[in-house]
Amino acid sequence: MTMTFGHRASAMAMTLAIAAGAGSAHAQGDGNHVDDGSTTDIVVTANRREQRLQNAPLSISAIGGATIQRQGIESIEDYGNRIPNLAFQAGDSTRTDLQTSVEIRGVSGSGTTGFYIDDSPLVANLNPRVIELDRIEVLRGPQGTLYGARSMGGTIRYITRQPDLDRFEGQAHLQGSWTAGAGSPNEKVDGVINIPVVPGVFALRALAFVEHDAGWLDRAPSENAPAKFPTRRNFNDASYAGGQIAALISLDEGRLTIAPRFLYQKTTRGGRSEADYEAGNTVNSRLFDINEVGGSDWKLGTLTIGYQLPFGDITAATSYFDQHDEDLEDGSEFLNANYNRNADPVPGYLHAYGRSKIFSQELRFTSEFDGPLNITTGAFYQNSKTLTAFPAQSMLPVTPLLFELDRPTTVTEAAVFGEASLKITRGLSMTAGVRHFDNKVDYSSLSKGLLGDNRLYTGVQKEAGFTPKFGIQYTIDDDHMLYANAAKGYRVGGVNSFAAGRCDAGFAAIGTTEDRARGYRSDQLWSYELGAKTSWLDRRLTLNAAAFQIDWKDLQQRLGLGSCGFSATINVGAARNRGGELEASWQAAKGVAISLGGGYTDAIITDNGGLNGTRAAQIGSRVQNVPKWTVNAGLDIDRDIAGRPGFLHLDYAYVGDSYNARNTPRTRSSYSIVNARLGVRIDMVNLAVFASNLTNKAADMADVPPLIGQYAGRPRIAVNTPRTIGIEARIAY
After folding, report:
1. Nearest Cα residue to 675 out of 702, 636, 713, 628
2. 488 with 525: CB under 8 angstroms?
3. Which residues contact 360 (CB under 8 A, 6 or more apart)?
4. Distance (Å, rounded) from C-alpha 673 to C-alpha 81?
5. Which residues fall within 8 angstroms of residue 78, CB to CB, at 6 or more apart?
6. Cβ neighbours around 591 below 10 Å, total
């Protein structure tokens, strides 16, 4: 499932050729100036209009493009720990390429955090490789008015860099590194080129990348293995390849812009990065040497058309997303223990395939009125078709048909929304908005075989409603602002898949029944927030703080069903999340910047919905996978090194412990991560050495519901990458 060295070298050479052909142009993102993520001058579009981050009346963190390069950010694992009250862990599905779930302010579970690339809403656990971005925006609190469903906890936006209409430029980036315990080096190369085809009118920007990450986990025969197979070293390697091409057309003296874009990414994995029993265990003991290979490929096409009127902007954003994924899981231990107890063990595994197609369309008007009133209004439509399928799989001689599944689901969402901001006095303004949504979920599920029930389940869920928002903002002066918000968020419901009659004891332990758990309702919440954004010392010091309370009802939680091996999403009652964030950035001296952030969330169950089983959510217990504390700190120093411009970057992140009940209830331990980078610029070349996870901490990223069933007493825990030390070169033309 991995590329050969020759294939990787060829792909690297092709990628470098793209950038090398760019010729001479101005250097971009050289990383040799302090860019600590200070909020002073970052411009965001969180409210669908350009604002200085310090003027946006909500809790938001933003990471600029130069910071992304300087800190070597490639994915959410690289920046997630650096955002207060943002946590990530393995998702509600065991699929190898879809295992990251993000929660903000303790609103945890699948689909609670919205994810956007520019104006395109996508699956929240896509986790694309970060190659070239203008910035990352993390919006805390429900964003149901402007962003709709699945933004009940917050929204993450990747804002891509647009083609430059005037400059011919390019960049190449090479990286090599070594991960502790790996059997080979990691390799990465990417390149970008910008071509102003018709200067001032039409430009193209293209990039490509290829990356190979070596594995560090081993698979060895267990004590009960029928044959002592050779240890499989470093099986969890992964390869990535992809790119994008974007165009920008500017007409009518810049008032009309047309921006098509196409993105592609392919991932192949040799196995899961999951440890047995505890996060630090690097050996998977198995009955058989079965490769749990998997991967995905996805394509995203977008078209954004904007027109500037004298009194505002009209935006039409269309996108189409298409993803395939596949996976294989070894369930030999579970299957033999439950269905082949008195015979010699035989191999047992399942294949899984997935397909997602998402079409989205939004038409939006953002005013620029001269008076005290401004509005944002629009309409949204999205059609999502997903298919989860398990082709017929045998387990001879136990059964000729172990399992077969076909589960298509279609979700149709339509909405209209509006938000108005009114200046009451010179410093006081108020905001009110509402979104009306109308959703429909069509699903069917048919499972066969030893693990199925040969029954067809079909259904339709419909829901319509409103998500309002209210806010007030008081600007004391250009550097000090107070705000308060109240907003509603929601998430669509769905259907569970489990074999009829197999999990009665598991449902009884939760306090529900099989019939009640076949589907689950949407959940919703109200969030109340108070915040302040301030700058001091001639804007060398920025201090932002916010406090919140979230009242959450019908919350969906993924719970294990005991020895039957299945799990289900259950509406477990109600919860109350309470806490706050503090972010500070300080330009301590010339060339020295310090950043500090902290988040606290106390998320507890306040009503168990009448579920009275022994494993039901207990009133006063913690909401799953929510750490109480997240803390981060960073230091950036710019100094000459041997007469050349250089920099040093250090960052630290702490994530507190949390509760996990997806399989066997347990506590996930807290962890700390330390990263370091040292760089120097020599002419057009920027060189850097780096160490990620410097202390080699094995972080527990949660166990997930398996495809087949969890082997009793052996949780499989998703883990982070061990200490990685490397060197990189970035060449800008």
Report:
1. 636
2. yes
3. 120, 121, 317, 318, 319, 320, 321, 380, 381, 382
4. 8
5. 71, 72, 130, 692
6. 15
**Any idea of the CA torsion for 4, 9, 10, 14, to the nearest 10 degrees?**
140
- CA angle centred on 177, ends 173 and 180, rounded to 5°: 160
Query: Among 241, 149, 263, which residue's Cα sits nearest to residue 187?
Result: 241
What φ, ψ does residue 215 adopt, rounded to 5°? -85, 160
Strand residues in 19-82 grouped as ranges (E): 43-44, 51-52, 60-64
The first and second tokens of residue 418, run together, are 């509006």
d(CA 59, CA 67): 20
Q: What is d(CA 62, CA 64) in angstroms, rounded to the nearest whole number?
A: 6
- Is the pLDDT at 703 greater than 60? The verdict is yes
Q: Which two tokens stand for residue 596?
A: 């500090």
Helix (H) or strand (E) holding 15: helix 5-20
pLDDT, one tens digit per residue, over 338-387 is 999 989 999 999 999 999 999 999 999 999 999 999 999 999 999 999 99
Which residues make beta-bridge pairs with 406?
Answer: 389, 446
pLDDT over threshold 90, residue 459? no
The predicted structure's pLDDT at residue 556: 85
Q: What is each CA distance from 664 to 110, 364, 558, 568, 611, in whole angstroms?
A: 19, 46, 12, 13, 18
411-422 residues labelled b (16+ CB within 10 A) or e (exposed):
bebebebbbebe
- What average pLDDT does range 204-228 have in this prediction? 96
Identify the structural domains of the chain with CATH numbers, from first to last.
Answer: 5-732 (2.40.170.20)
Q: What is the pLDDT of residue 92?
A: 59
Of the pLDDT bands very low, low, confident and very high (cuts 50, 70, 90), residue 94 is low
Chain centroid offset of residue 713 CA: 29
Query: Tell me, what's the pLDDT at 30?
Result: 38
Residue indicated by tokens 């702490």: 654
Spatial CA neighbour of 150 closest among 523, 705, 446, 582? 523
pLDDT, position 593 = 97
Chain-centroid distance, C-alpha 221: 35
Query: What Rg value do the Cα atoms of the chain yield, rounded?
Result: 26
CA distance 330 to 293: 10
Q: Are 113 and 103 in contact (CB under 8 A)?
A: yes
Q: Which residues contact 309 (CB under 8 A, 6 or more apart)?
A: none
pTM higher than the cut 0.85: yes
Rounded to whole angstroms, the Cα distance separating 6 from 305 reads 42
Ranking 38-47, 451-460, 665-674 by mean pLDDT, the lowest is 38-47
Around Cβ 398, how many Cβ atoms within 10 Å? 16
| Ramachandran quadrant class, 307 (left: phi over 0; alpha: psi -120 to 50; beta: rest) | beta
| Long-range contacts (CB closer than 8 Å, 24 or more residues apart) made by 1-8 | 1/237, 1/239, 1/268, 1/269, 1/270, 1/291, 1/293, 1/295, 2/212, 2/237, 2/238, 2/239, 2/268, 2/270, 3/210, 3/212, 3/239, 3/241, 3/268, 8/187, 8/210, 8/212, 8/239
Query: How distant, in Å, are the alpha carbons of 186, 285, 289, 401 from that of 331?
Result: 30, 12, 12, 15
The per-type count for the chain, helices as H runs and strands as E runs, is: 7, 42
**C-alpha span between 401 and 404 (Å, rounded):** 8
37-51, 173-187, 401-415, 706-720: least confident range:
37-51
Give pLDDT, residue 62.
93
**Structure-block tokens of residue 426:** 């010179």
Nearest to 593 by CA among 544, 535, 633: 633
Alpha-carbon torsion angle 88, 89, 95, 98, nearest 10: 10
Q: Up-side HSE of residue 628: CA atoms within 13 Å toward CB?
A: 8
Which phi and psi (to 5°) does residue 703 adopt?
-95, 160
Q: Which among 720, 670, 545, 702 is positioned nearest to 84, based on CA atoms?
A: 545
